[in-house]
Amino acid sequence: MDKVIIAKEISLSYSNNETIINKANISIDSGSFVFITGASGSGKSTLLKSFYGALRPHQGSLIVGGVELKKVSAKKLNFLRRHIGIVFQDYKLVKEWTIEKNIMLPLIINGYDKSVTKAQVDTLLKHVRLKHQLGKYPRELSGGEQQRVAMARALAHNPIMILADEPTGNLDDYSSQLIWNLLEGAHAQLKTTVIVVTHHIPASFNVDYKHFHIEYGSINAVN
Amino acid sequence: MRSIKNHLSLVIALLSILFSMQIFIIVDRSLEAYKENLVSNYSVIIVSQKRLIRDEILGINTIISDMKELEPNNVVERLNSGMDKKNIEFLKLTLPKFYKLSLAHYPTPREIERLTRDLMNNPLIVKVENFSHMHDITYKLLLLFKAVVSVFAISIFIVTSLLIFKELKIWQFKHTERMNIMGLFGAPVWLRSAVLFRLAIVDALISSGLAFGLFDYLSSNLFILEQFLNIGISVVIFNPIDDFILLLSVSLALSILLASLIVLGHKEEV
Q1: ipTM for the assembly
Q2: CB under 8 Å to A98, separation ≥6 — which residues?
Q3: What's the CATH architecture for B43-130?
Q4: What residues in B contact A75, CB-CB < 8 Å?
Q5: Radius of gyration of chain B (CA)
Q6: Is A82 on the interface with B (CB under 8 A)?
């Protein structure tokens, strides 16, 4: 099976030089569903950031979607990111844009036609059950609704991979279930690789998944 | 409302810069017009024992634009009590020749000094009257006025620069988040900054449009025109083509510079 991510002996740290991930290895199959767990501060989000190039390894080799991220050009990184959908714990919606425009963002960046964009946004808003909120701004929505918008944005351009950083961390049960259903749906129907960083794997999760656990800076395969 | 607020702060800052710039231009034009006015009333008188050749005198110093001989009749009339016609004619011939020199522009004290020296080097010229004392007072007044206006313009420039700098910080804060989010989805730099540049250009157009309206109104305001007439000068307050192009260019350049500084200073959040 093709590997979408291959990390060999990578070390990650922020500017304060404290190494968060230390000479760790991980490889993820294309089309798989992956959970990465670990205690708070263990480096789960740091690892996820490295997958979309927000943090570069200072040691080792990290290849995502065939692109070596250790020394990647801005152009190549942008190209890679255009094929990834990211869901953040703090949503990262553009406050001054309506939810419709927020969902459109990856479609605009990827140069989709206006009519396709409009149709895709309509479909996604139905999926996340926010059709009635069209035209509203993020501040007018609850946390759960904002995360559903972020989820719709991540799915909009049919990415090859979805990276989700604690997507249900602060959500109510209804919104959490909706998010899991959407991630499962993207994985099952579009064969999208889904990588979720979370504290807890939901008990009712029905999809075959791979589980990695981070502890003391190293990544361990659980199953 | 939100959209107006987004534009207002930069528009006000840009407008105040354009306003101070145009005021400075008007003052500069007024000073130039006033200098022209002064030069037409200012002349140097030279005295010679023999008749002088116009072209030779004009060649002494480039500042001399014209030379006219002063008729001796006025002097003679004051002296003619009891003199017969023959003596008067003789007196006219023996009297020194007086010439009035017109100048190309209003001279600086140094130019007057140089001109006097150059003229005195001519062996035919016996006396040069440059009215330097009167000239010095007027010239110093002009310099003082220009200095006051320059201080005013510099103060406005400093204040508005601080306003622009503050605006830069606000813009940085406001746009960095959106630019970061767009970057996370792979938007190239030009696309991330497009909104910023569009906003900057729109604000530049609005502020130049407002400046155009304001100065177009002022240039036809009777009260203002009357003030210029009172000091005997006529000044173009606002040229709707040249001045507008200048205002628009400055406004566009400043706002694009502002947007570029934000884009260049932008660092991706980790």
Answers
A1: 0.91
A2: A134, A135, A136, A137
A3: 2-Layer Sandwich (3.30)
A4: 188
A5: 30
A6: yes
